[in-house]
Amino acid sequence: MGMPETMRAVRIAEHGGPEVLEVTEVAVPTPQAGEVLVQVSAVALNNTDLWTREGAYGRPGDPEALSGWRGPVDFPRVQGADVAGRVVAVGGDVDQCLVGRRVVVDPAIYDAEGPDANPVGLMGSERDGGYAEYVTASAERVHDVTTSPLADDQLATLPTAYGTALGMIERGRLREGETVLVSGASGGVGLALVQIARARGARVLAVSSESKIDAVREAGAHDVVDRARNVAEQIRAAAPDGIDVALDVVAGDLLSEGLPLLREGGRWVIAGALGGYTVTFDVRRLYLHNAQVIGSAMHTPKHFDLLMNLARQGEIQPVIAATFPWIRPLRRRTNSPAGRTWERSSCTHSASGVVPYRRLGERRWWHC
């Protein structure tokens, strides 16, 4: 049977709430030279999709400006950064042997070739994504996971959340035996950080809401701090000798109060600002103690390769909570916390915690 000419897709034509999501019939994209066409099996909804839809990222010097992940969005845009599926066609200069392969798509658009390139764009923001029946992607950015024991819905939870987590761990140079602090530990990225850090032999100290403490422990945390109480005091009690690495998606007061808890040569890695993006701290804690504050945006190609190796070996286990039809919940559920995945026949979502949700001009906090 030949390829259909049209497909269903969920697009946005402007920034806003769920009401701007439009289910529409569009042409099936044609893979260009160096590209493949992927039939989408499962797609995830995460923080990045929500913030891009709302234009909530802001711009340097103008945090209230409407913006996608890295700048203005070229509307209309098909969202969806996290995609698992099967290659059904290839463009010029691409090996036909890829057809039929089960793949996960690396959603990052990089600034250069090579394993250490930096992400400067994202599928679903700077190019069309996976809220559709088909999506094109660079052949270099699809990873064969045919042998993975993980189901498609599990695979679709990996690119953004687990990619961001692995990028943080690699940039923070986390080593076996070190003590690591994980903030936002019940969220999609946080749970990934806990799992991977524990697997690497680190002692994991996590920060979470009281209601999620058991889930975070089950993911692999050795100790969990209740974020509703004095966090710095609890960290000191749990790690009296200090922490080697902090993997932080919260920033805000946690960064200000937590930096003095770093050991000599400690590394504080930041990949989010759920607690606030304006922070004050004593810089002497850095240069007098050879400490580092490291920004981490998603992952590099090398990091994503490592992640896909973990997926092929089944060494990570994303948490799936429920399933829903793929188009219907995009309107109904995109106000909800991140970490959700949509199969074409069902929508699945991984456990997540507090997620910032901002309508135009305001900030709200959603709890699950």
From TrEMBL:
Subcellular location(s) per record: Cytoplasm
Protein name: Oxidoreductase
Domain Enoyl reductase (ER): 16-335
GO molecular function, one term: RNA binding
Alphabetical list of PROSITE patterns matching this protein: QOR_ZETA_CRYSTAL
Pfam families per record: ADH_N (PF08240), ADH_zinc_N (PF00107)
GO cellular component, one term: cytoplasm
Assigned keywords, A-Z: Acetylation, Cytoplasm, NADP, RNA-binding
The UniProt record lists the keyword Oxidoreductase: no
Predominant subcellular localization, coarse grouping: cytoplasm
InterPro entries assigned to the protein according to its UniProt record, in alphabetical order: ADH-like_C (IPR013149), ADH-like_N (IPR013154), ER (IPR020843), GroES-like_sf (IPR011032), NAD(P)-bd_dom_sf (IPR036291), Quin_OxRdtase/zeta-crystal_CS (IPR002364), Zinc-ADH_QOR/CCCR (IPR051603)
KW Transcription regulation (keyword) present: no
Coiled-coil annotated residue ranges, if any: none
Subunit and partners: Homotetramer.
